Amino acid sequence: MLDFWRWSILSLTPLFLGAALAYPTQRPLSTSTHKSDSPANYTSFELRRYGISNHEDLTRVIDLVNQANIDIWHLTPSHVDVHTNTTTSLPELLAARRYTTLPHSFPYNYSYHPETSSSPRRSKIDLSSLQDNEFHRTYHTYEEIDQFVVALASQYPELVEIVWLGASSEQRDVFAIRIGTRSRGGKRHKKHKHKHTSWAICPFTEAVHDYATNLISRLVGLVGLISRGHATTMRDLYSNPRFDAITQSRPIKDRVVIQGAQHAREWIASATALYVAHALVAPEDEAGSLRHLLDDFDFTIIPVPNPDGYAYTWTTDRLWYKNRMPLQADKPGLDECQGVDMNRNWGYHWNTSDDGFSGGPQGPCSHWYPGAYPFQAPEVTAIANYIRRTPKIRAFLDLRSYGQQLMYPYSYSCEQVAPHAENLIEAAIGATKALRETHGVPYTSGASCELLYPAPGNIIDWMYEDAKVKYSYSLMLRDTGTYGFLLPPRYIQPVGEETAAAVKSLAKFIENVGL
């Protein structure tokens, strides 16, 4: 049998080489097109904060806002932030309520960036240093993020690999950055001295050799072939959910998964995910480096889980929220609406009646539409499948904005207490302390439902209950309403540093307290 497999690999090697060489020299992770829309104009909008006195008052305000189809930016038991058109009539009861106008600064001269179908010209991104790096001084398009990820894997091939998770509804790639060392280091793991296959971007011959070695020795598994300089993934090799995206012969470490903006307009979430990825590979002697965490943990960073929505915020509507899958409209005069709220499309307590609002679940044209069924969003399905087939995930951090809050399960109900609440609370207290001590900016912690509102179908509930990831959190990044979703780029670096400190604190807690 062994000779048969060896013969099979030798016979198939030219096919793998031919497929790899067939790719163009410079190929982005994906390209796609969507129908043309006129760019959104928010010149007559303002951000209003309505005070809330109790739960009944909250429900009343939410009903009024939903009737007018007003965009809710932030919702807590004490206030609701809504982004409303000042030239549009509001429901009488809502118009009569007192509110505070928040001094958010929408860039009314904002210049949208048309997407091109051709591959972008790649510029050199130097990631040798974390501090004062030009990349972390501004926000970036999906294509520029692609270039960052390719540069990260090219410059740190011993630590980084690109993993293809699936395709969005518009056929963009949903991808992850997997970061780890070839062997376990640190005081606890010095006894592990195995020979390991290489991660990440490697020459074709080395990749084929690794593929043959793994397949012959284990008779299962698939290896991604990524060429140095080409930085392309062979998507066919990742299509079978029974296998890990790239086979490893090394011992499996505990894993941490960090995710960027599920909601497209939350740019700071994706920017922060990229900063943390950079911090994980930065040299240990550099301030802010998290590389020492790789002694005991592997990390998966999903920087753009909603690629279609994120791209749409750059081309057409800066404040777009959902993904971009087409749906049958539920409003007169409309043929279709677009988008599912990805953070309500997860399968644990999806679309339950206990959503905190008397109006119940919203229709396809609403901001918070949870989908017709759980995992309807292809992006959610792709990420869930990766989580299901990835062993030893110990912690999950969903980066969001805004509010400066670190939240743990449950989201779907305020009546239920997570079985591991004591550990979740203790770890969260340490992480919020680390967040605050970095730049003096206060963060609060608590159960998601209590800090915000009941929201079924939330990712942290699914991670905690279905995926059995004990330390599952959502981190609402800066600020508390001054800029909201339009946080200026000068905050990217400090928010990244705060978040890196929180990640370090959570990892240390898990290492010391255990599971």
UniProtKB/TrEMBL annotation:
Cofactor: Zn(2+)
GO CC terms in record: extracellular space
Signal peptide interval: 1-22
InterPro entries: Peptidase_M14
One record GO biological process: proteolysis
Gene Ontology molecular function, alphabetical: metallocarboxypeptidase activity; zinc ion binding
Keyword hit for Transmembrane helix: no
SUPFAM superfamilies listed in its UniProt record: Zn-dependent exopeptidases (SSF53187)
Pfam family, one: Peptidase_M14
Keywords annotated in UniProt: Carboxypeptidase, Hydrolase, Metal-binding, Metalloprotease, Protease, Signal, Zinc
Keyword S-adenosyl-L-methionine: no
Residues annotated as domain Peptidase M14: 138-510
Top-level taxonomic group: Eukaryota
Family: Belongs to the peptidase M14 family.
Annotated protein name in UniProt: Peptidase M14 domain-containing protein
